[in-house]
Amino acid sequence: MKRLLILLASAVVISTAVLGLAALRPTPESDPTLQVSNRAVDADPEETVRTSRSSSRSPAASPEPVADDRESQPLTRADRDGSSSTDTAPANEPDFEQMLQQPLQQVAAAYAEQNRFPTFSQPIESPAELLRYKPHQPQTVSLPFPTPNGGTYQANVTLDQYRYFKGDRQQLTLDLSTSGGTFISDVQATVTTVEGDELYRLPLHVGPGTRIDHSQTVDLSDAWQDWPMELQWTVRARVGEQRLSVVAPFRYETPVAVLEGVGASRVEGEFLTIPLAIETDFPGYYFVQANLYSKDGSPLIHLQTEGPLTPNHPPLTLRASGAIFRHLNDAGPYVLRDVQVERLGGDALPDRFGQARRSEYAVTGFPLNDYADSTWTDTLAQQRLDFLESLGGTDSPN
How far is Cα 7 from Cα 254, in angstroms, rounded to an integer? Predict the structure, then answer.
């Protein structure tokens, strides 16, 4: 029983530590995985499939009680003297304390590595990490429908990103196919509200067949007339005698702010400071993130900044850690890309987004010796690290 209580308590501590570690790591806007559910299709009615965001957790398996069928034995002298070995683990049983310390040591090591540098200036150490920090990613809705002849109609609708601003061009890609020889015909693509009201019909010129691959650039700026921000592409097709449709959601909005450019970068102590020239008619509290690349295109640092954006406040700036430049032995020049500007909501107002005028901005580099030695410390992060290391049975080097 004591061991079970220790295991349960330690599991709670480990889970809390891991969740806290994940929460502290800066995460850009990420488009959630679209999970699609289809309904049984009838011969004539049109079936519309809508995307939904859902998550599930598997409950932990409860240990099953084990019956003890050992024969009762007479008490030994040790038993009578109170020196029973009931609470003593056998020699070949794992050391529970060591088993619990190992995952805690791993959590502490990962947390220490993450907090080597400021949260607003984090090295990009893998392609997967870069993908997390890129704000615009293709969005695909993929759905199979069964056909009456035992085949399958596979509908894939892809948009090159989820959020668009007025004037942006969309790339709409259709990949429709059937197995079993059923023909696909009369393909239509429309922009509708989430309630299904049609706002725009795209002229499509695709012939019938068992496989349709079509990609088309769409400019909605002329058709847009005060549409709601939440929209969807609805792609309908006749598959044999059935009329089937699938929807791909997206946002189409007017930017609340525009990054017009970046000022001259400069070294300030241990940081490379990059001033941001953001124009807006909607003052408020803003959050900006971007990625800094080397001249040859290698990703280096993910940058973040936040603060009030009003005429009475200084411009927002990004700060890149010189210690990372030294670690990478890269003195520049650099390129700033993947900019995302967000006005944080409040008082029942939703978050709104701005855009960058250009896809990239040149940033001047400086000799690595110009940067002061890093003195960055995060008192709260160090306290958390000390706590994790104490749980794991290790001592902090600090």
Answer: 53
